[in-house]
Amino acid sequence: MSISDDGKKRRIAIILFIAGGAALAGALIFFNVMKNDASTYRKMIMKATDKTPAQLDPEPAHTEVIKAADSDNAGFADWSASVVSAFAGNAKDTDLQPGTGTGGFSEELVAKAGEWKTSLDSFTYEELSQKQQKLYDLIAHFLKNAGADKGGDKEKYAAVLEQKLGAEKNILAYEEMLDAYIEQIFSDSDRIMKDNKSVKNALKKFTFPEGGYEEQLAYITERAGDIYGNAKPADVVLEETQERFHDDERYSFSKPAGEGSGADVFVLNKAVADERKDLFTAVARDIFPGTMALEAWQNADRAAAYLTPSGVRDGAASFAEFSAYDLLDGEDRSVIDLKRNNSRSILLLCGKADLMANYYGKSRDEVNNFLTGYGVSDEAARNRIFNHINEVPGDYAARALGYVHILEMQRKAKDLKGEAYSDKAFYAFLTKYGDLPFKAMEKRLYLM
């Protein structure tokens, strides 16, 4: 028996209506899941990784003892002194600020790399003292990377990152590290907001401690002593900070009012304070945990100040800033942790955007879509990020990866020490060895 054309059409229409309704219902369910399950959204839309940092690098910390001499090697002392003197002269000629790493050295200095490498290879590592071995590793890192930023755009970019980090990893490894820590931080924020439904509203009212530089400094150093045993008194740190930043254009100094002589008074440049939004984190970056950068500056030979890779320096500063959130009181811990996660995520997202644009050649629109997908909704902020990564390739990536590498060392230190691990011991380790390229630093974790 045949079915009329009208009957066929009605049946087809009913089938399509039912199918369309099911599709619409499925779409509504999907978008509802996306709205209420941030993790699913990141996995499905943003292609977030399933890997954890431990899965990416399961190798335990280096435990082989590095043999060293009990006293300094006289020959190395004389030779390294001449090398450091050349670095210092270069810094004066090129306005290189300590801590900027290999990227700021003159062509004349780079031209000496071959001669210096031959001399460096003539020394036996085990016959140097521990202090000299640190200097050996710093000079070796410079010599390895001097003039290495040649070739195509990708090769240059990879070389720049190695100069700034000294981690001896490839771009894929860096990208995987950033992805893993981005997801870890966002997942932790998901947990915080799930456990405390009011935390997002409370975050809007969050404020850092009030007061000027001296008050912030006192606030931090008074609390840091409990978790960092060698925290210096506020007046001592203030004096050292004045010495350190006296020639830094970001800061200004003035004579005490009404006095014609005497020491200059340290004042933070208002533009910097406004840019940072708060003075607490600006001070924390310089002081906590343990004035590592200050000690590098005041090193007798000052080699670490000139040779420390910039990503190591910036990573330590970020680690100091985010660690200092533990010193805050008067707020719900979940609010403080969420605030810290928000700041940390921005740092790592900027690093990933840097890789996307400068290594993979992603366009402004593609980078904007990535940042928007992770919640950077301010168009002006996205434009500032892209403009910076376009003007200074590798800067954001090195900052983010520097911070991530210190987190990696802290993770490995916890695995290595087990119940004997303490933040105080880890901060002390950073103070002593935190001026080294990351590969050389990690080899010394067993000394913690």
Q: Which structural traits does this protein have?
A:
globular, mainly alpha, 448 residues, 2 strands
Question: How would you describe what is shown here?
Answer:
With 448 residues, this protein is mostly helical. The chain has two domains: 72 residues, no CATH class; 295 residues, no CATH class. The protein is 65% helix and 2% strand. It contains 23 helices and two strands. A two-stranded antiparallel sheet has the order 1-2. The longest helix is centred in the first third of the chain and has 32 residues. About 13% of the residues have low confidence.
Class per helix and strand makeup? mainly alpha
As a whole number of angstroms, the C-alpha radius of gyration is 26 Å
Mean pLDDT: 78
Strand percentage lies at under 5%
Largest sheet: 2 strands, antiparallel
**Number of domains as seen in the coordinates:** 2
Q: Tell me the total number of β-strands.
A: 2
- The helical percent reads 55-70%
Oligomer designation:
single chain
Q: Give the end-to-end Cα distance, rounded to a whole number of Å.
A: 88 Å
Count of helices?
Answer: 23
Order of helices and strands: HHHHHHHHHHHHEEHHHHHHHHHHH
Extract low-pLDDT stretches: 24-31, 92-103, 252-275, 289-301
Shape: globular
What strand order characterises the main sheet? 1-2
State the gist of this model.
The protein is an all-alpha fold and 448 residues long. It is built from 23 helices and two strands.
